[in-house]
Structures are given as C-alpha cells and as structure tokens.
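Working notes for the structural subgroup meeting. M.R. asked for a predicted model of this chain before we commit to crystallization trials. I am recording the input and output together here so anyone reviewing the notebook later can reproduce the run.

Input as submitted:
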Amino acid sequence: MNKIFGRGAQPGGLLNENQNSPWGSGGGSGGGDGSEGPPNPWGQPPRKRRPGAAGAANPLDELFRKGRDRFGGHFPGSDGKPYWLYGLGIVVLLWIVFTSLHVIGSQERGVITRFGKYAGTLQPGMGLTFPAPIDRVQKVDVAAIRPLPIGSTGPNDDNLILTGDENIVDMAYQVRWNIKDPERFLFRLRDPEKMIGEVAQSAMRETIAKVSLNDAIGSGRAEIEQRTTERMQQVLDSYGAGVAIQGVSIKQSDPPDQVNDAFKAVSAAQQDAQSSINNARAYALQTAAQAQGAAAAFDKVYAQYKLAPEVTRRRMYYDTMEQVLSKVDKTIVEAPGVTPYLPLPEVRSRAQGTVQ
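Returned structure, recorded in token form:
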C-alpha cells in the first residue's frame, strides 16, 4: 500500500505498473501522443464540420475580412490608436477636397488669392487650387449689368447742373455698368459704386456745361448720354477700375421747381411761335409754287402768241371774258335781225316760223 499510496510511491506508480490496463496508458489522452494502445472510451468523438466552418463561404466572415483588409489587417482601435484620429483624418481629407476643387459658371470668373495676394484667375469650368487657407477663390459675375441711379425725381440740390448758357437744369439719370477685369475691380476700388457715381456726376456736369438749356431739356439728350458714357469710360480706364460703362439714360431733365412754371409758359410760347413760323413757311412755299406754275403757263402762251398773234389775242380775249362774265349777273338783249351765237330751241323755232 505504501508503495502505491504512500510517500515512497514513484511517479506514475500505479499507472506505470498497469500498462496493460484496458483504459490505455497513463497519459490519459486517449492515444493522443501517438503511442499504440486501445482507444480511450472517454475520449472526444470526432466532430462534424458545420457549414460555417473553415473551408465554407460565410458572408458575414467575408465582410469582416474585407473590412479588416481595408484597415491594414486590423480595425481602427485594435492597434492601439484612438478612433478620433481616423475621424480627424477623414475631416481633413474632405476639407482638402472641397476647398481645392472649384466650379466656375459660364458668366463668372474665379479670382485666386494666395495668402491674401493675387495669384491668378479661374476661367469657366472646373478649377484646382491649393486648399484653404493657402488659396481662396472669390467668384465674380462679369456678365451681369448693374444699374446705378443718380439723382431722384424730386427736388434735390445735388441734381442741379449749370448749362453752357448759364441756366440751371434739374437732372436724374441712370448708369449701367458691368465688370470687365475682376482683378482690377477687386483690388483697385475700395467702394466701386461710390466711385462710379462720383465719376458719373463729374462727367455729366462736364457735358452739360458745353450745351444750352434747350439741348439739355429737349432734343439733345441722346448726344449728352453718348458723350457722358465716353467720358466716364476714359476716366475709369485711367484709374484702372476694371469696369465697362454700358450706357447712361437720362430719366429727368427739367428746370428747377421754383421757375418750372415760367419755363413751361416760355416753352409753350416757343412752340406756338414755331408753329406760326412753320405755317408761314408752308404758305410761302405754296404761293411760290403757284407763281412758278403761272409763269410757266405764261411762257407757253407767249410762245404761241409769237407764232400766231391774232388768233392768240382773240383766244386770250375770249378766255378773259369767260372768266369775268362767269362771276356776274348777265342780261342778254336781242336786236332785230341778229342771230344769236347759240342756236337756242326757242330762237330756232321762231326763226323757222318767220321763214314760213
């Protein structure tokens, strides 16, 4: 017993002595070490492979495997790096994409500034730049016509302009302009509309100072608009404003309100005088035409008179008597034995009765 259970028991004493045991060797692994012997009755039976085991296609395992491959063989956070680093990387990537790619419309130009300094202009289409804040792109519409009204339809001292004949006219007009050079427009002018308004007022005063009041409030408006447009373009080009003046339209051109009624009365009188002058000219033309016609007719009669004086004289006498007698009352007295020039029916019958 001591040999089996006591202190002097050798390692594997009982199991070593019972090598021929029906339960196999003392390894207890059911022949797992490759030694020969009977099979272990308590060993695990061989397991059947399930459909999802290795060697079978599992969609979920395939999805995890592809995701792991995309992240370099491991998922975010599995290599010790925090998740927010990957989120920050995605944000930075999106920031670079959205601030480097620019879509410029057909009527636009993209002005590029690199660290605040002009670096180029993007034409219509897709454009690439350095990401912000290195490059910034400002889109400018170069085709839109921008109206700028100057003055008003009411009394305003700023609209009073002195004409060349020392009269005062109250004017209100509109300037139409657009951008032709985005770089100069953005970096040469601090307040474009204010600058254009001041140049327009200066050019209009210069133009009105060379014309009369009648031209300013009458038929000379078209010429004033054209000359003002040309003068404005010259001044703005000298400033390098990058602006194109499309035109100037005069909306109001009247005398000041204090003398507007008197000017209206004068204008009405001038129109009446002009109407009388036109009527007189028309009468003169008509009379001259009639006189020329009469002279031409007299020349023709004179030419016939030279050919046959007696016949022409008698014809002229008859024509004159016809014109004179056709306008007065006439009394015809028949002398006895005189046959009337016209054989009237009564006279003819009377003559026939006398002959019988």
